[in-house]
Amino acid sequence: xLEVRWHGRGGNGAFTAAKLLGYAASVKGGKxxxxxxxxGPERRGAPVQGFTRISDEVITDHSQVYTCDxxxxxxxxxxxxxxxxxxxKENSTLIINSLQSKEEFMAxxxxxxxxxxxxxxxxxxxxxxxxxxxxxxxxxGAAVGVTGMVSIEAIEGAVDGMMAPNLREKNKKAIRxxxxxxxxxK
Amino acid sequence: MSKDxxxxxxxxxxxxxxxxxxxxxxYPITPQTTLVEKLADFLAQGKGHxxxxxxxxxxxxxxxxxxxxxxxxxxxxxxxxxxxxxxxEMLHYVSxxxxxxxxVDANRSTATPWNIYGDQRDVYAMRDAGWxxxxxxxxxxxLDTVIQAYRIAEDPTxxxxxxxxxxxxxxxxxxxxxxxxxxxxxxxxxxxxxTTNKMDPNDPKTLCMTVGPDFHSExxxxxxxxxxxxxxxxVKADKEYAALTGRSxxxxxxxxxxxxxxxxxxxxxxxxxxxxxxxxxxxxxxxxVGLVKVRCYRPFPKAYFAGLENRFKGVGVIDRSIxxxxxxxxxxxxxxxxxxxxxxxxxxxVGLGGRDIPKELIAxxxxxxxxxxxxxxxxxxQFLGMRW
Lengths: 186, 388
Hints:
The complex is a heterodimer. Chain A is built from six helices and six strands.
């Protein structure tokens, strides 16, 4: 069972990314998946979380996600508000959209046990390709590039299956860009 | 058949679409909203062939549904929590007049304190409203149960409304892989509603809106008989659905790894799924544990629990509601039905107002019931996972 936590702010699509990953793993990838948001009222700008579980078996677990194989942070200001390193499993991966360096993050006390930290300037990719600072799909591409949780083709299939027709091509391009960048960085 | 990645609300909406209602009347409320929104999407996409009545309240939603059913047409509505409480009066109108309406209740706590999160206090507050009450454990079961609910409700020997319960957020807002059956398959399973309990100018009659002392008890007796019939119809409806789709939920009760079990937990809804994992883990350690999932709360599977006698040494109940001054709501039914059994019973009240029920907490319940069997005396009803 793979467990993934997404950190975002209300309105920037963290849960959409969690759903895209689940759709890719299950409908396109032949596995089972589950995705759910942090439950409650939706408030724009407030810290929110999304979760994805991926497994070869049917997922019947309806308790919350407490430990993670991957944590993906869409907005680095969240690192000052919540502990994004909470529940990281052994050999897990943390991916942050930021302009700060890896060393700057690793100097934070709560990062001392983080094994695999990846930083990407997803906002730059989003601005260039999507024309807006919406980084959810970019970070999805980055996460898949780093972890190989699902295939890039499955992710592209999820974009076609879940997103509006006018959003598909540019999002696939943004995903592919981040995917290639992170695959090269490994 | 097609596969999609859906929330249980969306899956239930597919169940409604495939059941071909003539009318949907609904008023939105968290966490039910995405279900009725999905039904509106179906209409906008030209997929749905029903009238959508935007009503001004939940009371009106059920009143409108009653009106539709009185014309002999299939109807759907959905609500939650305060909305369910607000339509309480109409629930009794519908059941007493024997109208086979199907409703989804997205289970949520009841105010005050105001709380939009999941527990089962709303449905249990409606225990005696005369509705059949089914609980789903997953999105797939939500879709399948809505379709089965119409078959059960409209069975001529039942003619009783059905409430399909989905845990708020834990199910309603959780996405997973769902098989959507083909329309032709569902059409084979669910024929169009054919009832004489309707207003018909060619067959004028009263629909029993007023019945005095002279016949009242007889009407109530017939309702009780309808629930007795429903106990058989629910099992049959599940079996026939399994023959068409390959999916069965056990009718009223599902046992999981209970064959040689000594300790079992009784659960409803989504927590049953989490309990399966805990059972698997404890089984791997050699513990003889199992799960009894109550899928149907009304009619209550009384014969099953009465028939347990001394089969299990300990029976714990996971309750997401409590009847203040007495027991956890599910527990009091289980205990009553098990009267005379030698099993030790204990009640664990958890998951109120949306509090998570982690696997460790469920494992703790098994430890507690094991200790109870070994003779440790503790309170019969316990709140677990508390701050103090």
